Amino acid sequence: MTTETGTETSTTPSTDRKGDWIQTYSGRRFWPLDPRPGEVDILDISHALANTCRFTGHCKQFYSVAQHSVLASRVVKPEAALAALLHDAAEAYMGDIARPWKRFLWVSHGEAGQEFGRALSSLKAMELELLIVILEALGCNDFTDATWDEVKRADELLLVTEARDIMAPLVDQWRHQPKNGFEILPDRISPWGPGRACYEFRKRFTELTGK
Predict the structure, then answer these.
(1) Tens of pLDDT along 99-134?
(2) Could you tell me how far CA 145 lies from the centroid of its own chain?
(3) What are the residues facing 29 on neighbouring strands?
(4) Burial 146-163 (b: 16+ CB within 10 A, else e)
(5) 3-class secondary-structure state, position 5
(6) What is the CATH number of the domain that holds 31?
């Protein structure tokens, strides 16, 4: 695709890469369907997550994926803190897609013009592949299954707490409630703006990695 002036747009396919590319905060091209470690930048990740609202924007006020990630890193065991901070890092390049969508979406990643269905992967599988590349790029790809179990627990703990503090009361309730045995944090969450969320994410990354 070209503009009226003949210059490339950010959706112009490259002949040697899979899919299309996006422009990142730092001015790089990034191919979400063809991620490479050398194109991953923690500054892009922190900035994008700080400007991405949780719950598809259905919060009482802006609450970022970056803040969610920082809080997750604080409620897990120390050895799982970095994994918790980065568990949603793929969303910096693909957006925060709501669970009801993510569970059922499939991605076509064949050549342009291919018959639909020839090259399909679940969106969750593609997200995992993207996350693996990100973790490799950041030197954080040696997490164990036990680590990810700890992150999953923290994610659920925050989900229940965020529902209490960030969302409007659900009219017909849902099962993720303390009365149904789900854990909840005692302290209430106070949402940060994008600027602070970005700063806190980068600060936490430095604390955990020394980078």
Answers:
(1) 777 777 777 766 554 554 457 777 788 889 999 999
(2) 19
(3) 23
(4) ebeebbebbbebbbbbbb
(5) coil
(6) 1.10.3210.10
